[in-house]
Description:
Number of strands of chain B: 24
Largest sheet of chain B: 7 strands, mixed
Structural class of chain B: alpha+beta
Number of domains of chain A: 2
Number of helices of chain B: 18
Low-confidence stretches of chain B: none
Oligomer: heterodimer
Strand order of the largest sheet of chain A: 2-1-5-3-4
Radius of gyration of chain B: 25 Å
Radius of gyration of chain A: 15 Å
Amino acid sequence: MNNITFTLNGKTASYDGSATDRLLDALRDIYGMTSVKCGCKEGECGACAVLLDGTLINSCCVAMGAVEGSTVVTLEGYRETERFAVLDKAFASVSAVQCGFCIPGMVLAAESVLAKNPKPTEAEVRDGISGNLCRCTGYNAIVNAILIASKEGNGLW
Amino acid sequence: MEKISQSVVKKDHADKMSGKSTYVGDYSNEGVLTGRMLRSKVARAKLLSVNVPELPEGYCYIDRNDVQGDNNVNIVMDDTPVYARETVEYIGEPIGMVCGPDRAVCEDILSRIEVKYEELEPVLDIKKAETVFFNYEYEKGDIAKAFAEADKVYEEEFSTGYQEQAYLETQGMMAVPEEDGRIFVHGSLQCAYYVHGAVMRALGCKPNEVHILQDVTGGGFGGKEAFPSILGCQVAVAAKKIGKPVRCVFDRREDLEFTSKRHPSLCKYKVAVKNGKVTAMDIDVKFNAGAYTTLSAVVLQRGIICADGVYNVENLHVHGRAMKTNTTPSGAYRGFGAPQTFFAVEMMMDHIAKDLGITSLEFKEANLVKQGDATSTSGIYHFPVPLPDMIDEIDKACDYRRKHEGYSKQQIGRYRKGIGMSLYFHGAGFTGSGERDHIKAVAKLHKYADGSVEILASNGEIGQGLRTTFPKIVANELNLPLDKVFYNHPDTARVPDSGPTVASRSLMTVGELLRRAAIKLRESWIDGEEQTVEERYKEPDFIIPFYIDKFRGDAYPTYAWGACALEVELDTYTGISKVLGAYGAFDVGTPADWNIVMGQMEGGFLQGIGYASIESMNYDDKGRIRNNSFSDYLIPTAVDVPNLKCMMHVEKYPNGPYGAKGAGELPLVGAPGAYVEAVEQALGNEYRLHHAPFTAEDTILALSGKEEKR
């Protein structure tokens, strides 16, 4: 059986497990990407969201077989980028991080929103993160943070 | 704004933002056994036998026979077993645990274990329940006289459902046998010393033979107050027996079905009104406690103490009971018994106002308590009651009075609007003399030779900001830069017992201990030396002693106050009520950090709106909770309440640090009263609603029938 080959945070990764294994489990257990959280394992909460070929997906609902030849970005990779630095500062400025469990998925959702639309309206931001549950903040601070990042990150997205 | 209120970058921001924080599920799997629960499939039965198949090497089955100490989890009472005794009392009750290196193999073993039950008839209906776990009653004034002299007497019944905390990180605990023979238990928890006491008892060991660390915790909201004591005992028993680390992290479905949630309630109100004022209330409160007592005693106490709301009711009789049913044990959740009774009393006031032909708000204002009035338990509201100003703030923010008048006129067409307001408080800190008699908090500061200061306390950062606000207080008193003061997650081996992370007490009570400790350290500061100072809780002098047997005295030293309005647009075709605006005014004293406290207000308020509207959970005729996923139990997303505005009204509390009072729970408490009142108004003047949550399905039922009309 051939291994599954994909790019993980810029590096080539080879997976020798089953094609039906969950991307979430492989990321956490095999590759040590523990920023990727398991909140429900059925695609409802967004805590395990990662970027698959630039698209925000719930990694609990993706089989490893579907990852062959693709590019996967988790927060471990994304946190090294300039865009992350802007989001980091924006989230800090409004204390948008409480328990932190939704944050890795939320940050990648923010990236996904801004990559598609660098100057989103508040409604567009809310819509873009509506697949990511947060139980702590009531979302206002997170939405504000993303709008601040949109403003401050002039030209980055 | 006070200097202390100026926001800083939270101390745990960088690690959480970059995904580097280690939650209990994030520790390496290397050498760690996974625990999976064998759970009861029936709600009530005698356990006849458990037949475990031959286990592969490295796998182990643990049950009550393996409990080294006492098979009772120490919570308030001791009736919750570590592993089921001769009977099972609810669906999902842990009978045993299979531990081993591979989770899938554990699951396979579980599926092959045969459990023989002798089934008994379960008690599922709170109205038919006979076992009363807790029964409290108190009164003041002369209610018989007040009812006899009343212009009119009103009687109604209200109910509320479960609410699940839905912290994003499910319950998870891990136990590690250490080389020196100690057992190290760590995980997602609020109260390290509660777990310490419970594990000590289950293992039958001395205090220094076990220590508990709070890991980074992905939300609690009360759900990780008592439950981690149970799970902590279960993994500790297994790890001790096997001699290897054992970790159990719940699936979401397991967590939704089998961990504690807010008590469903049934409240009967009989109210006497004379000359437009409430003269008496006779209130009967029943909480569905589930199968074991866990925290029901204290949840019920708080619930019945605030059953008369924010109103000056001179003649009062309150009877409260926590009933046993064969269901998942209910427990702590933000608000702790108060949201249930506040919902009932707010709806009751609204319905009486409608009968009197005045607005709900006018009737409430005419009956408000004020500073110096007696509390329900014959204590005193020692400090100003800022509700009138807060009502004005809400009115200004959303044009409440005008909208309320407009929406009360006959509406036609598919979409109809309504607005409602609810008024409430949250008693700050533990109920009664708990702080003085049971907790006896101790907090310490340790100064290192380099001048940095470590806070030693047992309160857990669960997202509410304690790792930042505690150091802010200490740094402020010591005139140190904030990076010189730090607060790590508590490990009972290193920190004194400053009490649990509950009851909106941490900042107000322990924060004040730390402030006093910092003053002590400042006054004894010697450069270059290591120094430790300690502070102990002292009850404020003004408090009228509280007697729990009589429910008499100051149940709380002070109160956080709340007023909120919800404006909805109801779609009569779908039943869906869109929230057009949510407006909250909250007095939690001086914010220890503006952004952090605002985050608590917004997050708590949205949880309350969820509780009022979409968070519906129930069990079937077998006692099984059906809403066990985020597809069937909905919590608010970012698009559900886009217009949520919170305002802070600061009424300083002299005995809290810089004037701070309890904050975390308040914003949730009053949302159901405001939301259901708004939906009721949108439905039309003939409607009288009596339960929360009030879902889209309930709206369709109300529109199609007569049962919700007066």
